[in-house]
Amino acid sequence: MTPGTTMPAERDRDGCSPVERAATPSQCATLSIVIPAYNEEETIEALVRKVQAVELDGLQKEIIIVDDRSTDGTRERLRQFGSAIRVICHPRNLGKGAAVRSGFQAATGDILIIQDADLEYDPQDYRRVIEPIRRGEADVVMGSRFLLQRPQFFRRNGQPFFSHFIGNAVIIWLTNFLYGFRATDYEGCYKAFSRQVILETPVKASGFEFDNELICKLLRRKRRIAEVPIHYHPRLYREGKKIRWQHGLTMIWTILKWRVMPF
Question: What predicted TM-score, i.e. pTM, was given to this entire model?
Answer without folding.
Answer: 0.86
